[in-house]
Design goal:
The complex is a heterodimer of chains A (about 130) and B (about 150).
Chain A: H1 2-21, H2 44-53, H3 65-70, H4 73-76, H5 81-97, H6 103-108, H7 116-133
Chain B: H1 2-16, H2 34-37, H3 42-51, H4 53-56, H5 71-85, H6 96-111, H7 118-121, H8 131-150
Helix pairs in contact in B: 6-8
Classes of the chains: A mainly alpha (about 130), B mainly alpha (about 150).
């Protein structure tokens, strides 16, 4: 009986440590506008869209290498000058053409589609950020 | 039998020539053109004309075979796509951020040997860039981007 209790205790301990080590949901440190230390900052409304619809792929823990190579929002906020300008230009083009999230993904997960309102929020943020750089 | 097949292919080939497609328009006057509106060395200008302008400007020089179907389908589509991506004939009308992005992509793709496309240089040997020519274009794009940023 004692052995059984001991074994159960060890198992419980393992389970608890496993749970503690379980990956926390992706928490990306997008910098809000109030942080003046960064070149590119995010409005709260843009951040909410990015976190909900973009970070699944475009973050260090993203599933697609191609997506990560193309854009990582965390890295974007460290860009400045021409690099930041070029990336914002591309984001605007992608939004205008409705190219993201990719059609295949939207087909599989229809709720991931950017609504017009969400697209407008990102567009507004990108335009405002570009205006500051230009 | 072989005669019939050859004749059939011949008839099909001739018939296809009626479905050549429309070549993207060529315009002689391009007031917003990059080379017309910017101060660029003759060496770099010449590289642009031989390696980039057939697909990325309104001054495409169509080779004779580009009018023969089915080659025409490939060439016309390729040029339309090329102009859609970047059209140096519209340079002055582009937004600053777009210019900077084009120059960044140019430096990257030319530097890595991705541009001009191999499918183009196969038929246009003079568009094949040497290492020195690539370096020259990359350096030019970086310097020119800095100039554009000051605009």
């Amino acid at each position: 009986m004692k052995r059984f209790t001991l074994l159960a205790g060890v198992l419980l301990l393992f389970a608890a440590s496993g749970m503690a080590q379980e990956k926390e949901p992706t928490k990306i440190l997008l910098v809000p506008e109030a942080d003046a230390g960064k070149t590119l900052a995010f409005t709260l409304e843009a951040m909410s869209v990015i976190e909900a619809k973009c970070l699944g792929c475009h973050s260090p823990s993203g599933k697609s290498d191609k997506a990560k190579e193309k854009l990582q929002w965390e890295k974007l906020q460290t860009l400045s000058g021409a690099d930041a300008m070029a990336m914002l230009d591309e984001i605007l083009e992608v939004l205008d053409k409705g190219e993201m999230p990719p059609a295949k993904m939207v087909e599989k997960y229809p709720n991931m589609k950017l609504t017009e309102e969400e697209s407008a929020k990102l567009h507004k943020w990108a335009e405002a950020s570009l205006a500051k750089l230009e | 039998m072989i005669k019939k097949i050859v004749l059939g292919i011949g008839v099909l080939f001739v018939g296809l020539q009626f479905f050549r497609g429309t070549p993207p328009e060529v315009t002689a006057e391009n007031p917003d053109d990059l080379l017309a509106t910017s101060q660029i060395s003759s060496e770099v200008s010449s590289l642009f004309r031989t390696a980039c302008y057939d697909c990325h400007s309104n001054e495409t020089q169509y080779p004779w075979y580009s009018y023969i179907t089915p080659v025409s389908w490939f060439v016309f589509d390729h040029i339309s796509h090329g102009r859609e991506e970047v059209n140096f004939s519209e340079w002055a009308s582009l937004r600053k951020s777009k210019k900077v992005r084009i120059l960044k992509d140019l430096a990257e793709e030319v530097g890595e040997g991705k541009m001009p496309l191999e499918s183009y240089t196969i038929m246009h040997g003079d568009a094949q860039l040497t290492k020195e020519q690539r370096d020259l274009l990359v350096k030019w794009a970086e310097n020119f981007s800095a100039e554009v940023m000051k605009e």
